[in-house]
Amino acid sequence: MIEHLFYIVDVFAEGKYAGNQLAVFRNAGDLTDDEMQQIAREMNFSETTFILSDEPRDGGYDVRIFTPVAEVPFAGHPTLGTAYIIRREIIGKAVEQVNLNLKLKQIPVTFGQEAGRSILWMKQKSPDFGDTSGPGSMAELLGLSAEQIDTRFPIQAVSTGLWFAIVPLKDLEAVKQARVNRDRYFAESRQKREDGILVFCSETYDRRNDLNVRVFVPFYGIEEDPATGSGNGCLAGYLVKHRYLGDDEIDARVEQGYEIGRPSFIRLRAGQQQDTIDVRVGGNVVMVAKGQWL
Q1: If DSSP codes are grouped into helix, strand and coil, which group holds residue 237?
Q2: Own/partner pairs for 174-178, CB < 8 Å, 24+ apart?
Q3: Average pLDDT of 65-83?
Q4: CB 265 within 8 Å of CB 253
Q5: What would you measure as the largest C-alpha separation in the chain, in angstroms?
Q6: What DSSP character marks residue 56?
Q7: Is a pLDDT exceeding 60 seen at residue 190?
Q8: Which terminus of the chain has fewer CB atoms gathered within 10 Å of its CB, N or C?
């Protein structure tokens, strides 16, 4: 195997050792699918990305995304973290936008500043809305009582690239108590389209935030994800469709990862645009390490 430069960044983080970890490999076009999967398993982060070449193609950079157990067509924090590395390490200057050619589609990432802090934004695919589930069955899957589900809003499958069951809960205590019944989860995931489960409520640890979120993706080897751009993109579409925050346009700040010691902060902007919902997910990226894979 040829030696490859790689980087570790924390995404949706306000500083090092928070947010969601990501490993990014450069010039990975010589690696086979199996080698990429083995490297992702060795890193054992929620995702590892591989930039196939330093040279752009069709206005973007070819990128593949792997969890420890499988390749995925799209994921949020890998998109932002990889765009950050492409701009900083490959392009080497402050361009306003970087496009990533993912298996799902080409995703643009824009760079800006807010309150003196760098922020990256990705425009996600307009959400698709799938089946709804009853509170009783979802409560059993999550080890909760049906009374802890916020039945003012539906439990619904949503996708902006990956399918997530979006589950509204009544309070932070319910969010903290949620635990996935793995046997039931894997039995049901064969029948349904959900790749993961996102639970949320409007009670937060930090008063600056609007929503608290937890995300479980055992199907892809991620028992709990500290910050999930794809899942929160689905949540943004859900919030608009069901007017959870009282409007069909949102600008919200989400906290995630507190329960596993990786506090994360995710920005959501979304609004109804005729027959579609425009979704943007934003956050900060922090460089942690640079090395060489032998």
Answers
A1: helix
A2: 174/144, 174/148, 174/149, 174/199, 174/201, 175/199, 175/200, 175/201, 175/203, 175/212, 175/213, 175/214, 176/259, 177/143, 177/144, 177/148, 178/142, 178/143, 178/144, 178/214, 178/216
A3: 96
A4: yes
A5: 56
A6: -
A7: no
A8: C
> Is domain 128-282 classified as CATH 3.10.310.10?
yes
Q: Which two tokens stand for residue 226?
A: 């500290």
Q: How far is CA 73 from the centre of its chain?
A: 12
pLDDT (0 to 100) of residue 118: 87
What is the token pair recorded at 158? 């949503």
| Cβ-based burial of 229 (10 A; exposed 0-12, middle 13-18, buried ≥19) | buried
- Residues 33-45 have a mean pLDDT of 97
Spatial neighbors of 120 by CB under 8 A, at least 6 apart, are 80, 83, 84, 109, 110, 111, 112, 282, 283, 284, 285
Asked if domains 4-123+284-293 and 128-282 share a fold, the reply is: yes
Query: Can you tell me which residue has the tokens 């949503």?
Result: 158
Separation between Cα atoms, residue 203 and residue 91, nearest integer Å: 41
* CB distance 211 to 255 below 8 Å: yes
pLDDT at residue 62 is higher than 90: yes
Of the candidates 36, 92, 96, 95, the one whose C-alpha atom is nearest the C-alpha of residue 62 is 36
User: Is residue 11 within 8 Å of residue 22, measured between CB atoms?
Assistant: yes
Cβ neighbours for 280, distance < 8 A, ≥ 6 positions apart: 121, 122, 123, 124, 236, 268, 269, 270
Q: Is the pLDDT of residue 191 over 70?
A: no
Between CA 7 and CA 26 the distance in angstroms is 9
Domain 4-123+284-293 annotated CATH 3.10.310.10: yes
Tokens of 114: 């807010």
pLDDT given at position 186? 83
Characterize the bridge pairing of strands 249-256 and 264-273: antiparallel
Distance of CA 191 to the CA centre of its chain: 23
Catalytic residues: 47
